[in-house]
Amino acid sequence: MPSRKFADGEVVMGRWPGSVLYYEVQVTSYDDVAHLYTVKYKDGTELALKESELRSQSSFKHRKSQSSSSSPSRRSSSRSRSRSRSPGRPAKGRRRSASQSREHKDDKKKTIQETSLALPVSVLFESLNCVSSFHQKPSENNTKRYNGEPESTEKNDTSCIILEQKLKPDLEIKRVLEEYSLRSRKDDKKKEEIYSEKKTFVAVKPVEKVPSKTKELEFGGRLGTFMLIFLLPATVFYLLLMCKQVDPSLPNFPPLPALESLWEGRVFGVYLLWFFLQAMFYLLPIGKVVEGLPLSNGRKLQYRINGFYAFILTAAAVGILLYLQFELQYLYDHFMQFAVSAAVFSLALSIYLYVRSLKAPEEELAPGGNSGYFIYDFFTGHELNPRIGSFDLKYFCELRPGLIGWVVINLAMLLAEMKIHNLSVPSLSMILVNSFQLLYVVDALWNEEAVLTTMDITHDGFGFMLAFGDLVWVPFVYSLQAFYLVGHPTTITWPVAAAITVLNCIGYYIFRSANSQKNNFRRNPADPKLANLKFIPTATGKGLLVTGWWGFVRHPNYLGDIIMALAWSLPCGFNHILPYFYVIYFICLLVHREARDEHHCKQKYGLAWERYCQRVPYRIFPYIY
Asked: Which residues pair with 30 in a beta bridge?
């Protein structure tokens, strides 16, 4: 294994990704596996750089001293030659003076060009503006006045300094360099050497660093994740058993059912049939193929966007079953057994995912699930994007079996309510719950491409947490209100229903418009439709929106989620708190996600995120939190 060149805490010069400029950085750590240095810039930005992208400060001082010492020698030589000539030859003397001026300008350009790699951006722009002053006529330079007094040479140099931002976009630097033609035409060999080192100097924009060992553990670390593996299934089964009781009050703990009543092979077969039917719909060659965000190695995965088509085909299949008089109430009668089957399947899938991740390359591991602890990595997910050929397991489970299954379960509860209570039409409460949640699912599938920019896809690995959440928690906990209404019918008036509908529409509008602003800006910040949006530029090349919904609170999509969750629970009345478990859970989940997003964004964007937090002080709830 090659030894490292720079030690922790050492101050060196680090190349800024996407440019040829070097800045002063401090080495904070070194990854022995990926051979990357984690460095910290003066503005707080932390990046991972290769050893070839770091230079010692002494090498820059040596280069600068060489370039600066070359000009005086030439000027001294020119002056000595000028003094040796006879005063009686004025014409040649004037021509020699013009030659000296051109030589002086060339030396100035060369000095700036050779030291531009080591200078900060502000100094570079100062030098560029000073060079431009040499192109003016002497009479213009001498007639400039400041407060009525002739301007000295020192003042003229000082006036060239322009205060620039700490981090200028790479395109602006490139434009200025081209404008002043600061490209060496005689030193092509040196320029080739700069740009040919493993071709790392021609990157368009920085990419995330290769995943190293996870140092900061979430969810209470190893002990917390171990407890959650048992607590999550227990919570699901507790909620379902409570809904079956006549009095679902919290102190009234439900009796535990017999173990043999929780399992039935036929139910497990139906669940497998459902899962593989959705997998078949996913593999159909319909819908467009898009690229996801760049991975740590710069590669982009391709995804087929056909979730909405899968929903239409599923609706057609369910319609055929109802036409053939298949009792969809079977889902309600065996609801607990379906939940157990889904939990067993998600556990088996999680074991398979962890075993296969042990052979995955280092760059394909999840940045948050590579701690080296079995329980933690098993829970959070060790591999970022596990695939079987082109079949992306995480992306498929994110929207298909659980989300579409949620709608099918709601429909089964609606039919069960009509049959058990001898209703010709569903209750108004059941209609509202089904309609609101159907809108949410259809919106997610219609805007399927937006999920590619979420933390679940770009950051979280695929382990027990996401497998259980997608396949068990979403379909069986999110349908809690509809399941509750079957055994505990609630009557609401039309004015109350109208008020709840307005509340849901407000939440949906905030949720959808905020997500659309964010996704469109991420995909194409130069879109003319987004010209009215203001943003704070960051060192990563991305921008932080400070207008629209993202200038109102930092996470407006979470605010819309919570408002919609409340609207889904209100049709169940206020007799019991059980239907509002989803609201309480959703608030806790989003507060946790918000805290994780805050930490991630602070590390990623540095000082730009602090400026954004000062501009937008409220996180989720305006004037509250």
From this structure: 37
The DSSP output letter for 586 is: H
Query: Is 45 in contact with 34 (CB distance < 8 Å)?
Result: no
Angle between helices 428-446 and 307-323 (to 10 degrees): 140
3-state secondary structure of 305: strand
| Residues with Cβ within 8 Å of residue 136, at least 6 apart in sequence | none
Single out the residue of 378, 451, 443, 441 nearest to residue 411, CA to CA: 441
- Sign for the CA dihedral angle at 176, 533, 41, 212 comes to negative
**Residues 310-329 pLDDT 10s:** 999 999 999 999 999 888 88
Q: Which CATH class is domain 10-59?
A: mainly beta
User: Which of 469, 312, 310 has its CA nearest to residue 398?
Assistant: 469
Residue type, 600: H
Tens digit of pLDDT for each residue in 416-444? 999 999 999 999 999 999 999 999 999 99
3-class SS letters over 55-99: ECHHHHHHHHHHHHHHHHHHHHHHHHHHHHCCCCCHHHHHHHHHH
Q: 556-569 and 428-446 are packed helices; what angle lies between their axes, rounded to 10 degrees?
A: 150
* Domain locations along the chain: 10-59, 215-490, 492-624
The three-class DSSP label of residue 146 is: strand
The reported pTM is 0.66
DSSP code per residue over 549-571? GGGT-S-HHHHHHHHHHHHHHGG
Mean pLDDT of the chain: 77
What DSSP state is assigned to residue 289? E
| Residue whose token pair is 């760059």 | 363
Residues comprising the chain, all counted:
625
Residues near 280 by beta carbon (within 8 Å), at least 6 away in sequence: none
**Integer Cα distance of 46 and 208 in angstroms:** 11
Kindly report, residue by residue over 477-503, the tens digit of the pLDDT. 999 999 999 999 999 999 999 999 999
Helices 480-487 and 405-420, packing angle to 10 deg: 10
